[in-house]
Q: What sequence folds into this?
């Protein structure tokens, strides 16, 4: 399995505009009388609606006590000045960090700027057609300088992150629990939907402080016998190993068989049951290198691969979050806004206030082989669920590759489906069968169109 997770810097707005004179219930795309709860597994007879099998979100995530204690011990031995302020700074920086601009994009932008400057210079050059070669070269050089100066002002300046000992400690305090929360959410979905899956080995690309290893151990500690952590920073690898040892180099590792490397294994024969790349693909300097890395990780995947939601990593059989293998409908929209989800977690006690935090992230889980679960076609809830009196608004990504807005009521869609929808949250799947869509005009009933009296 391969899991790719990336932090999302987009905020999904839960608010929706109410159209004057038209009830939002008329936007329902789950057809009354046809769609119903998919109860082939007979879960309605064994569990309450609030625990239906489509629920994959977690409550509030907390770091394992051994990891939290180890992080505190490390910071006590190696104190960092102004830790709270610096954790906020690096979190803000990572949140706003963009991918590097591609060379082709730069060349296109430079050509456009050059054309604009030439158009501005054209009136000034009228009557000076007989310039000598030296003056022509001087004009060309002046144009080149103007284009370069404009590019420097308007282009995002991407730089690789180089972690020294102190910066790695700041990163640990700022991001370790957030990464652990997001990865735990992804692993929980695999474990819940495929309880018989018992992985033997894990590969974590861009392992950082080792959050993925701890989350995998929490999920499959009894079966996992090998953890391969890949990070180009030797400082990060040392810190992750120190955390496994409780903050003391002389202590035994809390998790056995964890190996640290700076490069991916060369042999194509080496495969891992679970392959993860959490919050690391954007640290690669180009699209070509990201694609090459994803392809390499896929070749090393035995069962599941997790990665960032993007055109680069979305290939193979999609296990989650998409209920289909079709092109992502989000990328077909004018404004591309990838699916993002949230996971609540407890912050480290010594880095910030004790209020719960929310980690917003995008992810995709790719599976090798064939997934035969009937529930794979269940639509995914891709925005916050809006619970209103006697009806629920759900925004769904459906198995036919479309985005739909469903308004579910007990009267029109059965009490079981209504209760399941009301118990669901952003990121869960709705256990519904015979999900079909209609044009909004066909959904409008006469009573919806008539003015109230």
A:
């Amino acid at each position: 399995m391969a899991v790719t997770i990336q932090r999302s810097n987009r905020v999904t707005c839960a608010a929706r505009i109410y159209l004057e004179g038209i009830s939002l219930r008329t936007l329902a795309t789950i057809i009354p009388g046809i769609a119903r709860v998919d109860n082939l597994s007979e879960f309605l007879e064994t569990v309450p609606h609030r625990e239906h099998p489509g629920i994959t979100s977690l409550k509030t995530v907390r770091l394992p006590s051994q990891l939290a204690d180890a992080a505190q011990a490390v910071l006590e031995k190696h104190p960092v000045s102004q830790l709270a302020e610096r954790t906020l700074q690096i979190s803000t920086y990572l949140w706003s960090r963009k991918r590097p601009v591609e060379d082709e994009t730069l060349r296109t932008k430079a050509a456009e700027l050059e054309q604009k400057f030439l158009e501005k210079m054209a009136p000034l050059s009228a009557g000076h057609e007989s310039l000598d070669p030296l003056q022509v070269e001087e004009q060309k050089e002046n144009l080149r300088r103007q284009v370069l100066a404009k590019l420097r002002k308007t282009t995002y300046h991407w730089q690789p992150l180089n972690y020294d000992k102190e910066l790695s400690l700041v990163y640990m305090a700022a991001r370790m629990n957030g990464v652990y929360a997001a990865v735990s959410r992804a692993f929980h979905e695999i474990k819940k939907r495929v309880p018989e899956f018992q992985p033997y080995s894990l590969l974590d690309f861009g392992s950082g402080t080792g959050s993925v290893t701890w989350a995998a151990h929490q999920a499959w500690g009894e079966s996992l016998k090998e953890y391969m952590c890949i990070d180009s920073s030797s400082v990060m690898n040392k810190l992750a190993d120190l955390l496994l040892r409780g903050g003391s180099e002389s202590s035994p590792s809390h998790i056995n068989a964890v190996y640290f490397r700076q490069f991916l294994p060369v042999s194509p024969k080496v495969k891992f049951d679970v392959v993860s790349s959490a919050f690391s693909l954007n640290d690669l300097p180009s699209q070509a290198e990201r694609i090459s890395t994803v392809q390499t990780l896929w070749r090393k995947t035995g069962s599941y691969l997790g990665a960032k939601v993007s055109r680069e990593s979305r290939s193979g059989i999609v296990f989650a979050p998409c209920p289909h293998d079709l092109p992502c409908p989000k990328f077909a929209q004018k404004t591309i806004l990838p699916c993002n989800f949230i996971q609540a977690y407890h912050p480290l006690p010594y880095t910030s206030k004790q209020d719960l935090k929310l980690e917003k992230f995008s992810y995709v889980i790719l599976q090798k082989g064939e997934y035969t679960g009937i529930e794979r076609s269940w639509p995914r809830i891709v925005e916050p669920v809006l619970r209103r009196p006697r009806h629920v608004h759900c925004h769904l990504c459906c198995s036919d590759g479309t985005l739909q807005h469903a308004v579910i009521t007990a009267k029109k869609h059965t009490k079981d489906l209504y209760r399941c929808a009301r118990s669901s949250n952003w990121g869960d799947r709705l256990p519904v069968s015979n999900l079909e869509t209609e044009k909004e005009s066909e959904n409008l009933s006469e009573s919806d169109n008539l003015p109230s009296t």
About this structure: Confidence is low (pLDDT under 50) at residues 10-29, 437-453.
